């Protein structure tokens, strides 16, 4: 059988598989429709719960303007970006735990926007989710976010309006809540991302391409075909600003993945120690790996030591396309050369579940009041291509997690599809107790868990922040195509609506 015939047969098989999936999946159009009844009706409005008073706290005020900007990524590479205050990432927001934070958002774009405070525990009405916690901020209008910075840690902010497009175009920035007594004098923030610079961004409507990727066994084959350039803090390759440190100096390096592709950063052996994951301190003794795997939406804090006076490098593991774009030089003195960038060899991989948290939510495995199984799968939408489902439904028709205040909630996440799904819970932190049926000796507390194909995690959280909260995939392309649900508190409701005259699109 010649190659042409084999190719024809393979295409036919893929088409048949696609039709079967389509015919057997209870698909729904994502991004339209109304919220579930419980979210819309009954009890108090979310605008009336979780109030926080300024009191005698220090007030830190910031002004962020959403605006369009031609952004230079590197020599010869520029993108038309949407920015907060004209830069990618947006203006850094640094406050101290206990501060009262006020952020005035002004929208100078020609589309609605919001700001979501990723990982921050705050009142539901300040969460920045259009159609659920507020109306999207219209062009020419403003909105003020106010909350208490109660929990020291690494966070970030980004638009949650049509986020698969708006975050992709640069609407994000760093947020640090510092401890009252800083542990490290040198403290740096790095946001990782991917861009389509030399190509049009591909989408998920190409059924043949998606099916081919799904069958390849690569959990992010869909994402890899979309982008051609990696960035660190909005810059790529030689345009990445070197980190200046002297021999023996220690620094806290904060990493956030704002993109949709997993990034594995290789550190010089013996130079790094993970100290926090998703804003929670971790126990890292005995872990000697020097590769840090960061899922989309995930955050890690690392204690980094400059081991010698030579230029050292932290960079993307070099076994993926575009890896050379994502290399950070660490230089001493005036030596800022990156001409001979050589990464260390990888030794082990640290990831979100590699560590236990110093402070857990539950000392023992709790007895849940609510059990919810979250089946993460794939399907087809008529005319839309691939969909990403929770329990065979796409948002807003996904079954909500219905809770009462004070409930202990057990969620079992199962990835029965073929793509990676970094699942992020708003307004809460959860405790990861087991993977694939095996309990962890040291549970870890997070707000995002990366669930790869075939994996199953059991998490627990306490329902102690009333409101209507998203639980969604932070590959926002997957969220845009349906992988979103809501933690729905009994006795409260959202007065907002999806779409409508404000064009609210939370995914």
From TrEMBL:
PROSITE patterns: LTD (PS51841), MULTICOPPER_OXIDASE1 (PS00079), MULTICOPPER_OXIDASE2 (PS00080). Residues 384-507 form the LTD domain. It catalyses: nitric oxide + Fe(III)-[cytochrome c] + H2O = Fe(II)-[cytochrome c] + nitrite + 2 H(+). It is found in: Periplasm. Its cofactor is Cu(+); FAD; Cu(2+). One of its GO terms (cellular component) is periplasmic space. Its EC number is 1.7.2.1. It is an enzyme of class 1 (oxidoreductase). The chain crosses the membrane at residues 5-23. Keywords: Capsid protein, Cell cycle, Cell division, Copper, FAD, Flavoprotein, Membrane, Metal-binding, Nitrate assimilation, Oxidoreductase, Periplasm, Repeat, Transmembrane, Transmembrane helix, Virion. Cu cation binds at residues 118, 158. One of its GO terms (biological process) is denitrification pathway. InterPro entries: Cu-oxidase-like_N (IPR011707), Cu-oxidase_2nd (IPR001117), Cu-oxidase_C (IPR011706), Cu-oxidase_fam (IPR045087), Cu_oxidase_CS (IPR033138), Cu_oxidase_Cu_BS (IPR002355), Cupredoxin (IPR008972), Lamin_tail_dom (IPR001322). One of its GO terms (molecular function) is copper ion binding. Homotrimer. Belongs to the multicopper oxidase family. PANTHER family: FI03373P-RELATED, MULTI-COPPER OXIDASE. This is Copper-containing nitrite reductase.
